Amino acid sequence: MTDASSTPAIPVTIHRGDYRPPxxxxxxxxxxxxxxxxxxxxTAALSVVRSADAPAPLxxxxxxxxxxxxxxxxxxxxxxRMEGPDLVVDLGDRTAAVVExxxxxxxxxxxxxxxxxxxxxxxxxxxxxxxxxxxxxxPDRPDVLSRYKVRMEGDKALFPILxxxxxxxxxxxxxxxxxxxxxxxxWPKPSYLFALVAGDLVVNRDEFVTLSGRKVExxxxxxxxxxxxxxxxxxxxxxSMKWDEQVYGREYDLDLFNIVAVSDFNMGAMENKGLNIFNxxxxxxxxxxxxxxxxxxxxxxxxxxxxxxxxxxxxxxxxWFQLSLKxxxxxxxxxxxxxxxxxxxVKRIEDVRLLRAAQFPEDAGPLAHPIRPDSYQEIxxxxxxxxxxxxxxxIRMMHAMVGAERFRKGxxxxxxxxxxxxxxxxxxxxxxxxxxxxxxTLFRRWYEQAGTPRVTAxxxxxxxxxxxxxxxxxxxxxxxxxxxxxxxxxxxxxxxxDLDGGHGIEEERLVLLDRGEMxxxxxxYRSRPMLSLNRGFSAPVxxxxxxxxxxxxxxxxxxxxxxxxxxxxxxxxxDTLVAAVSGETVDHSVVIDAVAQTLGGRAADPAFVAEAVLxxxxxxxxxxxxxxxxxxxRRERLALQAAIGGALEAEWRAILAExxxxxxxxxxxxxxxxxxxxxxxxxLAATGxxxxxxxxxxxxxxxxxxxERQAALATLAHGDSDERVAALDIFxxxxxxxxxxLDKWFQVQAWSLRPDTVDAVRELAGHPDFxxxxxxxxxxxxxxxxxxxxxxxxxxxxxxxxxxxxxxALDPKNPQTAARMIPPLxxxxxxxxxRQTMMKAELQRILAQPxxxxxxxxxxxxxxx
Length: 865
Ligand code: ARG
Ligand code: ZN
Hints:
alpha+beta, five-stranded mixed sheet, 26 helices, binds arginine, binds zinc ion, metalloprotease, Peptidase_M4/M1_CTD_sf, EC 3.4.11.2, Aminopeptidase N
């Protein structure tokens, strides 16, 4: 049966160094499904071939399965036993056999959403990483690749659509209102890429002709009524297919590419061969229900999953320690794609903001791990910002060091060498070395070492000669299990601006910091040059650089790299906030002037300006402090926001007085314009001027799309006005039947800066529309709360208790999603003693629960170290 109690009580640690090649290969698999919501019968015929020299038992992994029958070469077989959840078949000295196993599973009872489960009356699968073993007994490791033939049969009324990987080669009707389909995938694949969908779905059909003229049928399958909201996803898919041909020379390799959207899904989406399965939130979008950011999310995730067809499927991972091989590379690919589709500068700002918000804290805490981890208890816990986003930064650095053209030579070689194989991170690095002609010996430390490197920079000036030297030093902090770190290779893009007519180096340079300390001659300048450092965030590091007064403001105004302008203004804001929180009297006017100056560019590039003038988040301010003071940070950030709001009131009002671009227009400029209006409204509202609730309510009511509507609602949700109550009610009534929009209704309330947000969240958890069964809903309420620093860290510990209660209630149903709520509690070391004590007590309370999953046990116990 598919329940959580099947997971062992004492977690076993798996080590990367223990990898052994499989003893049996499975060239072919035939699966037969007799489909039912409460009972699905699965017959698996595995043709196995021994690869070990000596006889070895065939171990087939299971999770909550019972073998109803075992046959070998067509005959009943008794030489098998259960070893815990696994099935071990003794095949004597045979070197090949067909092993047939029958199992029965209950998709309706599968609340973990791993394996085969029911969602809204349809059946679907999620097998990565180890979900296939919840469907049938199988080695279920990514280095065992097979050709799949899948037959499924079910009630035609319940399941009119039957889909699996590859091509449908036959279908037919059978007795009792049933029908069947036979699917075949010609490409050998690991079990984690298997997928099956059965349900009442409608399709948006299109086609794409590949580089070599292959006509590919495209289908996006959704529930009746949702098909109108799939056009953006379809366009994104076609753009991705074209982009991968142009930029990486990668062509699609089947005649059919299907995507199915499901509402109950643990993650964003899954790249199953020829049959991607998506969380609805990354497929469905129309101007009335989706914000511009939602649109970008759809485009990025559609591209990500499509790109996996090469970086992940054609070349897959040898074992799960290599996860970043496919995820880091694929995130880098989807980031580059989105940059090409929109604004490269804004995309880079967003990606860096996400890295700093999610990955830097992870790397600085008890759950820090290298992008290629050395050990795990539950692999689901390693689908992290480190493996994905730091992994992408590591690929980006290689790209930066060798340039686009040579990088392409490296990836061409990688795909050529390893097509059809299960590869390692080391294989990738070696292909880049050989293809691009570069030595990455030292660079490999990025795969081995956890922790965000810190680069210290200082300019030494010889006032007589005018010579200036940049002194750089690097240090990687200690992380759990890695007390001592070695220097790595850090590529830093730099440029020096001369304000005084000297003769310095004016061109951008790539400095390779390849030792603990290094001196970089900058040239001769009459006065200290303005140094732009780590431009474009060329390395994912923290830079400590004591700036002279006025430098950051100058760079914010004049640097020719937009990312560097953004970075300078952020640093200026950050310095001001940190000083204020530390009790210094601060002068807001430097920041106000810089914001005013940046706003001057809004006509040319509103999207960039909107990003640049946003204040750093409360959490990011906290990350700069030895002991985080959430209340002081909130107070000082609101004070700065109000000061900017008041000083530039006329500008904000002028922006809001302009007619917003129609919601259906998704051009870069239109999106930027809307984003800037949202920022303007937030600054204006921060002033507390009496007319601001009415202004926000006006925007909320007049909005012709979700971007403006949600921005206005979120602004109102911070306050205490009658308009807040009215807007929340109108929004709820209008969208109560649309789950994705209802998520926003929960989310804006959990994001609120109101002092009673924790109580509000507790109350919302009892709302009839709240459910633990849907991961999106859980994240929209509780995930939003943990991102709301001052609320989550409320001094009485109520935020901590609420999250621990959630973890305890959710774990028996959905351990994967429960475990994802734990890391915020694990950041206790950064807080005062009273908060530390309460946070640890909640982690201990979680660990004291009987029957805890492996997922939650690992995260909670490691979080206490
Ligand atoms: N490979 C998927 C992606 O595109 C993520 C799947 C993760 N699933 C899981 N159960 N951990 O990133
Ligand atoms: Zn992925």
